[in-house]
Every structure is written in C-alpha cells, then in structure tokens.
Amino acid sequence: MTQAPRTRGRLNRSLVLTKAIELMDAEGVDGLTIRALATALGAKPMAIYTYFAGKDELFTAAYAELVAGIPLPGIEDGIAGLKQNLRAHRAVMLAHPCVLQLVLRLGRPTEYNLRLNEAAFGVLLHLGLAPREALLRAMAASWLALGSATNSTSRLATNPVVLPTAADFPPETHPALHAVLSVLPGLDDAELFEAGLDLVLGPTSDR
C-alpha cells in the first residue's frame, strides 16, 4: 500500500483544512476521521489536534472556509443581490458536496449564516415586505437552493434518480402528466433553479 508523503515541518492549519474538505467531498462527512485525515497528510493523529480540538471544530472551520468567498447581498443590490448570493451558494454546493452535509451536521447558525440572514432580511424589509413575508420568501429561496443542489448532485451519484418521461404516461390516461413531462427534457437544473428564484423573489434582469 502506498504511503502518503510525510508532511513533517510543513503541516499547517490551511493544509489540514484543505485535505479535510477534499476527504469529505470524496467520502462524506461521516467518512472523515482524525486518523484518516492524518494518514492522508502523512502525519500522526495527534498532529491534527495542534490545529483543531476535534471534528466539530474542523467541521465549523471547513464550512466557514467554503462559504468565505460568497458575497453578502447589500441593501443597494436589492433582489438581484439576493439571487446572486443564492446562485453562488448553489455553485459551492455543487463543487463541494460536503457543504450540504455540513449544514445539517452543524445544526446551529454559523457566524456567516447570521450575517447572511441579517443582510437578506434587511434587503426584503427595505423593499417594503412585512416581516412574515420577508421570512417566508427568504426561507423558500434558501430551501430552493438546497433542493436544487441536492437534485443536481443526485444525478451524478452511483445510483442516480431516474426521472419519469412522457412515454411512461400515455395521454389517454394521464393527459396532464404527459403534457408536462414532454417539455422536461428541454429544461436543465440551472434553468429550473432560475425559474424558482423568479417565482419566489420576483423576476430581475441580472441573469
């Protein structure tokens, strides 16, 4: 079995974090162990604890690293800024499947999430929405991004989801299903996501 190259003398927090994200993308959050991470870095397990107290701290740092480049929407950006943020979130989730798992694993708002919520709600309230309407729209848009990314990554899985086609539903027995599913092949996940954003937040001209 080929051994990972030794990293003595050059191991640092950034290197550990990068390798942890790489392993979580490949094996899932549950597949990450301190021992496996140390082995991949050619180090001893105790060396990892020099930079992170444990897996929980590592998970929090990994999530913060992955979302660090996503700009927050500003009041002056309006709905277009919210959409750009959601597109960026979706892109990160597609590039790094572990983000979806980290969101669920952390189970609490991170510093970035708190700042994002404050910014998003601020935009919607500034536009004149009532607090309840602002909450509903922001949550629906967030779930849309999560659901779209989950759906897209499932297509790339070992056992991808098989979608029905118009041929599965004859027009004689299921006319509505047949009509709707006949146009599905012409739509991709990104287009469906954009349509969802327009329905939840309203149309803009920033695509």
From TrEMBL:
Residue ranges for the DNA-binding region feature of this UniProt entry: 33-52
Keyword Transcription applies: yes
UniProt keyword terms in alphabetical order: DNA-binding, Transcription, Transcription regulation
GO biological-process terms attached to the record: negative regulation of DNA-templated transcription
GO molecular function, one term: DNA-binding transcription factor activity
Name the UniProt record assigns to this protein: AcrR family transcriptional regulator
PANTHER family registered for this protein in UniProt: HTH-TYPE TRANSCRIPTIONAL REGULATOR RUTR (PTHR30055), TRANSCRIPTIONAL REGULATORY PROTEIN (PTHR30055:SF151)
Gene3D superfamilies reported in the protein's UniProt record: Tetracycline Repressor, domain 2
Segments forming domain HTH tetR-type: 10-70
Phylogenetic lineage: Bacteria, Bacillati, Actinomycetota, Actinomycetes, Pseudonocardiales
SUPFAM superfamilies, sorted: Homeodomain-like, Tetracyclin repressor-like, C-terminal domain
Origin: domain of life: Bacteria
